[in-house]
Specification:
alpha+beta, Rieske Iron-sulfur Protein, binds FE2/S2 (inorganic) cluster, 357 residues, Rieske_2Fe-2S_sf, binds fe (ii) ion, 18% helix, Cholesterol_7-desaturase, Naphthalene 1,2-dioxygenase Alpha Subunit, Chain A, domain 1, 2 domains, seven-stranded antiparallel β-sheet
Length: 357
């Protein structure tokens, strides 16, 4: 591991380097991605293969056979064992080799690393650090599997360091500017107030009545342009996860009709290869049984907006990577960077702790 690059950033974000803690839960996949067929994904700069056993238990192993290094994900799952595609060595869910087709003795070192996986909400979470240091569960996302909510999930690969996405989703003042044509939520003119609640970064901001972003009107059953009052509240309980709550109040609700609504975004990032990030997203309306058609359209609209972020963040990453000045360039903080600065403080603290251990 390298030190976070020192430069003109007051608190370096390490965007060109290995800048992710290991001893925490990162998202490995949407639950539906992992089946009885092996699936490959780079996580924390390591090749990982995932599959499910017959009883549904998800398994994650190093995706590199210790014999001649074939990607195990090209093999097959037989009786809960992963069979290498090259010479047929077989590995159990714990990574230990159970069979070598051409000999009866199994070399004692014939095993691959296995990683703990757990489910939370609609996602699987992997611990790639020291398993003896697992001291907490993945962030609770029970609402995502609660039938009182209607949920869309999406995934995109972003060629930018994960911390750029993390900072992006915690400073929503960019919505009025970068997403002027998609979110159309132009009233984001002031920074949110930011505080720490325990280990979580929290931001809050109230808005006077204004038309709600068309991205979310249909999910609530509102016509486009519906004027609502909003309280925006965000929370980052882990570097891997932040939530953005749009608390919406129907100020024209007839007596006895519903007034309060919520759409909660979950922004989940996982480092992949160096400079690449898996970005998992869930938008959840606290409204049951929203139609598939509305959810599909909502997903399309959200992806249109998030592709604006992706495009710009990738350009930032490329610019900083290719510019010989790298991070040695002035970087100023604005009032709206309160949450982003705290991300860097938390990141630095975690990395310092892991690297000095
Ligand atoms: S490379 Fe896997 S069995 Fe030979
Ligand atoms: Fe954005």
């Amino acid at each position: 591991m390298t030190e976070l690059t020192k430069g003109a950033q007051l608190i370096p974000n390490g965007m060109l380097d290995d800048n992710y803690p290991r001893n925490m839960w990162w998202c490995a996949a949407h639950v539906d991605e992992v089946t009885d067929r092996p699936m490959a994904r780079w996580l924390l700069e390591k090749p990982v293969v995932m599959y499910r056993k017959k009883d549904g238990t998800p398994v994650a192993l190093d995706n590199r056979c210790p014999h001649r290094w074939a990607p195990l994900s090209e093999g097959r799952v037989i009786d809960d064992q992963l069979v290498c595609p090259y010479h047929g060595m077989q590995f159990g869910a714990d990574g230990v080799c159970t069979r070598v087709p051409t000999q009866s003795t199994i070399p004692p070192s014939a095993k691959v690393q296995s990683y703990p996986l757990r489910q939370a909400g609609r996602f699987l979470w992997i611990w790639m650090g020291d398993p003896d240091k697992i001291d907490h569960a993945p962030v609770d996302m029970g609402y995502q599997v609660n039938p009182d909510w209607s949920v869309v999930t999406a995934y995109m690969e972003v060629d930018a360091n994960w911390v750029l996405i993390r900072e992006n989703v915690l400073d929503l003042t960019h919505i009025a500017f970068l997403h002027a044509k998609t979110f159309k939520q132009g009233d984001w003119e002031n920074p949110a107030s930011v505080s720490m609640e325990g280990e979580s970064i929290v931001y809050r901001q109230d808005f006077e009545p204004s038309p709600l972003s068309p991205l979310f009107c249909a999910g609530f059953g509102f016509p486009d342009g519906k004027v609502v009052k909003r309280e925006q509240e965000g929370r980052m309980p882990s570097l891997a996860v932040s939530f953005s709550d749009w608390n919406v109040h129907d100020i024209a609700a007839a007596p006895g009709e519903r007034i309060d609504y919520l759409v909660r975004g979950a922004h989940i990032v996982t480092p992949g290869k160096r400079g690449e990030t898996h970005y998992f997203f869930a938008a959840a309306f606290d409204v049951p049984d929203v139609s598939d058609e509305v959810l599909d359209q909502t997903k399309t609209n959200i992806l249109d907006a998030f592709n604006e972020d992706k495009d710009l963040l990738q350009k930032i990453q490329r610019l900083v990577s290719e510019d010989p000045r790298g991070l040695d360039f002035p970087e100023i903080n604005l009032g709206a960077d309160g949450a982003g600065v705290r991300v860097r403080q938390i990141l630095k603290r975690k990395l310092d702790a892991e690297r000095s251990a």
